[in-house]
Amino acid sequence: MNTVGFVDPKSGHTCLWSNAYILVRSPLLNFCWTRFKETKRQSSERKQMNSRDTEERREAAAAVEPAEMAASAVDGAAAAALRSVLRRVHQAAERSGRRPEQIRVVAVSKVKPPSLVQQVYNAGHRRFGENYVQEIVDKAPQLPEDIEWHFIGNLQSNKVKPLLTGVPNLAMVETVDDEKIANHLDRAVGNIGRKPLKVFVQVNTSGETSKFGVDPAGCVELVKHVSSGCPNLEFCGLMTIGMPDYTSTPENFKTLANCQTEVCKALGIAEEQCDLSMGMSGDFELAMLGYPMYLPVLCLPFLRRLSDTYSSGKQVEMGSTNVRIGSTIFGAREYPKKQ
Ligand SMILES: *Cc1c(COP(=O)(O)O)cnc(C)c1O
């Protein structure tokens, strides 16, 4: 797009029309407007919910212990938070040109009690994520069998068997990051005789040594191993954690999207056959949408270049199809203090 500059005959100022044009065209405006309406609706919903809450409480007050009352208020909040997250995912899916049912929402329930998981389940959700083998093995039997559990923590070889035997309804392991763990999982699934286990290959896109995952350069090789050397595993896509401050490091998600392109080329599969698991409470919309939707606010100086991107239709898309959301649904986590 070109900037049209002219001198306003009245004021004598030079005007640049391109800026106005960008604002009018920008999906950002649309986005702000939707978010504004959404926020208004949410706050009126919250008000409604609160008033319903007070009535219920008044009725229940005579019968219920104060501690239980507090717990049920928190539980109600988790179900409401789930609905709000699902709505945001729905909208982000539409903005990124996907059907909402193409996006998997994994409710990450680590360190949260089974009662809270049950509340979110009762609100209709079936997909939950856990990080620690001992915790999921304890929790799963206390909760309904039709939950699809995703294991999203680092997995050690000696924990594979307890995980698989303790959680028969384990749907997915998102954290396969080397051949050794892939082989262990493959063998254990075969020995137990359960149905093939869906897996994601975890990629370390941020280069931080504290993060697990295969190097992006080794990604294709590991995926090939999983899909052709592990008959009991079903390769479903790639997963990454990325840096917490997405806005400064959108390249983490871009890196995973590039890995997806390479994997699809190497295996001769369509992108729909290689999901991307990225995005958590703080950045799931960004992971689904891609940064051009957000950057205009962050870096006004580059507005013109971005508008070029829009007008030529080359919008960079992160394209996450599997978001893992914990604290926004369940509330902030409190880890037991280390002794
Ligand atoms: C804890 C965790 C999440 C959820 O994080 P929130 O910021 O609470 O949404 C997602 N993915 C992984 C791998 C996690 O360990």
Can you characterise this structure?
The protein is of the alpha/beta class and 339 residues long. The protein has one domain (5-330): Alanine racemase (TIM Barrel, Alpha-Beta Barrel). The chain has helices at residues 17-25, 27-61, 66-95, 114-122, 133-139, 160-166, 179-192, 219-229, 251-267, 284-289, 295-298, 303-311, 327-330, and strands at 5-7, 14-16, 104-108, 127-130, 148-151, 170-176, 197-202, 233-239, 275-277, 322-325. The strands form 2 sheets. An 8-stranded parallel sheet has the order 9-8-7-6-5-4-3-10. Helix 7 (179-192) links the parallel strand 6 and strand 7. Helix 6 runs parallel beside helix 7 (179-192) and helix 8 (219-229) crosses helix 9 (251-267). The longest helix is centred in the first third of the chain and has 35 residues, at 27-61. Pyridoxal-5'-phosphate is lined by residues 108, 110, 131, 152, 241, 280-282, 324-328.
What is the CATH top level name? Alpha Beta
Number of strands: 10
Summed up, the domain count is: 1
The CATH superfamily is known as Alanine racemase
GO molecular function: pyridoxal phosphate binding
InterPro entries: PLP-binding_barrel, PyrdxlP_homeostasis
Biased composition (Basic and acidic residues): 42-60
Keywords: Pyridoxal phosphate
Give the secondary structure arrangement, pairings included.
Blueprint: E1 5-7, E2 14-16, H1 17-25, H2 27-61, H3 66-95, E3 104-108, H4 114-122, E4 127-130, H5 133-139, E5 148-151, H6 160-166, E6 170-176, H7 179-192, E7 197-202, H8 219-229, E8 233-239, H9 251-267, E9 275-277, H10 284-289, H11 295-298, H12 303-311, E10 322-325, H13 327-330
Parallel strand pairs: 3-4, 3-10, 4-5, 5-6, 6-7, 7-8, 8-9
Antiparallel strand pairs: 1-2
Helix pairs in contact: 2-3, 3-4, 6-7, 8-9
This protein binds pyridoxal-5'-phosphate (PLP).
Pyridoxal-5'-phosphate binds next to strand 10 and helix 13.
